[in-house]
From TrEMBL:
This is G_PROTEIN_RECEP_F1_2 domain-containing protein. It is a multi-pass membrane protein. Keywords: Cell membrane, G-protein coupled receptor, Glycoprotein, Membrane, Receptor, Transducer, Transmembrane, Transmembrane helix. Residues 143-382 form the G-protein coupled receptors family 1 profile domain.
Length: 417
């Protein structure tokens, strides 16, 4: 068998076997956990099912902190876009030949890896640009730590399936943001001296966060679908066994998928710029693209189905579940606007139509900006819709037990009722 045929066979096995089987195994595993409840209580007979009544007060609108954070993010985004456009425009006049060569390389590789251009190198050492990007990523890390900490130290949060999924989403954002900060630092400090091992380590670190976040979005969509369609079966989600299996499965898939990147030949050292996909093999690019498209399709399918089912059934659910549902709608909308659409635009501008490399570079950095916005927007949405998250995080930093606070609130509500 020739090397080309062997490579093609390996690609087919990876795509059909790994990409195709893992999501369906995950689906089968989770639905198996609810099998008995679903078969014992056929159909969504909501009037006979137990509703979970929450004790948290209803949020009346966005808090000043959330509005300030969102305004700061939008302002930083505008400044960053201006910096990117300025650097690209000043670079165009002095590197036309390099851009033409880069354009030729892109057209010769339909799914080829991104290549370092002069505008990228200018941006990699542009101090205002680096300051804005690193500041945004640090803010992303801090706000997602606020989401993650209550799920670690608070028992009521650990037993809530939806809050566990948001914690997984926050953990994925922390991995991505930490890897991005390391990448920006390396590109600024170690120009022309970046080793293959260093760039690969940063790539794997960010890929773990990417898979954790994508998996969390898929599980959030399926979680809301089950909660709307069969609330009694949804009670199984709060079981400790279910939460542990879901976390273990998500982490295993994320780490396993990311380590596949290391199965590639050692390329040259002394990279000019450490950039994701700069030396990824063709099969891994196809794998990432295929798995990303599959997860996006599943997320949209579950989300649309949940929204359609919620039209008739949401009004008879508890106030807590209604707030969770609207939080889910906002998070999915942010996912579509800040993740799916920028990735589709990047693919269209670089692979389908014949646009120049400057547009490619600009679109690449816009993707990075929207990724940051998505990570911070999740915190803004979550903190706005669920005030108990801010209270739990504040209680942790004040070294007070939040469990007693929850019990007091429940007791007072019972007297009011």
């Amino acid at each position: 068998m020739s090397a080309k045929a062997s490579s093609f066979t390996t690609l087919v096995i990876l795509n059909i076997g790994y990409i195709g089987i893992w999501p369906f195994l995950l689906l089968a595993l989770i639905f198996w956990l609810f099998y008995r409840d679903i078969t014992l209580h056929r159909g969504p007979c909501l009037e006979n099912q137990v509703e979970y009544r929450a004790s948290q007060p209803v949020s009346r609108g966005p808090s000043p902190f959330s509005l300030t954070l969102l305004s700061t993010e939008l302002l930083s985004w505008s400044i960053e876009l201006a910096l990117i456009i300025n650097v690209n425009c000043t670079c165009t006049s002095k590197c036309n030949k390099a851009l033409v060569a880069l354009y030729t390389h892109y057209m010769a590789h339909p799914l080829g890896a991104a290549t370092t251009s002069d505008s990228d190198k200018d941006l990699g050492r542009n101090i205002p640009y680096l300051f804005v990007r690193v500041t945004l990523w640090i803010v992303d890390i801090v706000v997602n730590v606020f989401i993650l900490l209550p799920s670690i130290f608070n028992q009521s949060f650990r037993q809530d399936p939806f809050k566990n999924l948001l914690a997984q989403l926050a953990l994925g954002d922390i991995f991505i943001a930490t890897g991005a900060c390391a990448r920006h630092y390396l590109n600024y400090k170690e120009e022309h001296h970046l080793s293959w091992q260093t760039c690969s380590l940063v790539d794997v670190f960010q890929l773990i966060g990417l898979h954790l976040g994508q998996g969390a979005m898929f599980l959030i969509a399926m979680d809301r679908f089950i909660a709307i369609y069969n609330p009694l079966a949804y009670q199984n989600m709060a079981k400790k066994r279910t939460i542990i299996i879901r976390w273990a499965t998500s982490v295993t898939i994320a780490v396993g998928n990311s380590l596949f990147l290391l199965i590639r030949p050692h390329t040259k050292d002394n990279f000019k710029l450490c950039r994701m996909s700069s030396d990824w093999p063709q099969w891994f690019l196809i794998y990432i693209f295929s798995s990303g498209v599959l997860i996006c399709v599943l997320v949209i399918a579950f989300s649309v189905t949940a929204v359609i089912c919620a039209k008739k059934r949401l009004r008879i659910q508890s106030d807590y579940h209604r707030r969770v549902f609207y939080t889910f709608v906002y998070i999915i909308s942010t996912y579509v606007l800040c993740w799916i659409l920028p990735k589709v635009a990047f693919f269209g501008l670089t692979q389908i139509r014949s646009f120049g490399p400057m547009i490619t570079t600009l679109q690449w950095h816009i993707n990075g900006i929207t990724d940051t916005i998505m990570g911070i927007a999740n915190f803004v949405i979550y903190g706005w819709r669920h005030r108990e998250v801010r209270k739990a995080a504040a209680a942790i930093f004040r070294r007070r037990g939040h469990v007693s606070v929850v019990r007091m609130v429940r007791t007072s509500n019972s007297h009011v009722e």
